Amino acid sequence: MIESICVYCGSNPGFDPAFRAAAISLGTEIGRRGQRLVYGGSHLGMMGALADAVLAAGGKVTGVMPGLLVDKEAAHRGLSELRVVNSMHERKMLMADLADGFVSLPGGYGTLDETFEIATWAQLGLHAKPVVLWNVSGFYDPLFTFLDGIVSAGLLRPQHRALIRQAQTLDEVYARLAEPVEASGGKWLPGDLR
To answer: Would the pLDDT of 64 be above 60?
Structure first.
């Protein structure tokens, strides 16, 4: 049961209006379903649009933000809860602990960092929660090609490539979140690509 969704996305809106629209539609659906949003806590860009949409739909939002960013006035002041932490590492750990599943919208370095770290934790058997990339306007097409190339190069096992799920629509996001995840559970050994 997915009760709490962690969403990674840009603190910039991006140039494609579909990015912000996707954030709003996902936020609205999270609120409508009575789920909790866990996210980075900013009022800026897609992050702010996402949180505002959840709140407008009657949902709850937990923001997690390092103190250094709160001090730069990036914090959303209207959240259900804002947890201030000491570091980016602590932020990522708390967000992971609070979430039952993860969705990545378009974003930059931070979004990619968070997505790959949470996928790596699944690969290592540290959690068995779904990780979904919403491929808004084909944004992640080059990344999917790159990941498939890593598999072809023998540097990533196909079952670990499958830990990052793809969705083209909001309905697919929820369908991918509902699919069970098989954690590696310690079976993975470095160098073993069989």
So the answer is: yes
**Residue type for position 63:** G
Q: What is the mean pLDDT of the chain?
A: 93
Closest to 106 (Cα-Cα) out of 43, 49, 29: 49
CATH match of 4-178 with 3.40.50.450: yes
Q: What is the pLDDT of residues 16-31, one digit of tens each?
A: 999 999 999 999 999 9
Give the C-alpha separation, 163 to 142, whole Å: 17
pTM listed for this prediction: 0.92
Domain ranges in the chain? 4-178
b/e string for 105-118 if b means 16 or more Cβ within 10 A? bbbeebbeebbbeb
Residues 6+ apart with CB under 8 A from 42: 11, 48, 63, 65, 69, 74, 75, 76
* Count of CB atoms situated within 10 Å of the CB of 161: 15
Please say if the pLDDT value at position 188 is more than 80.
no
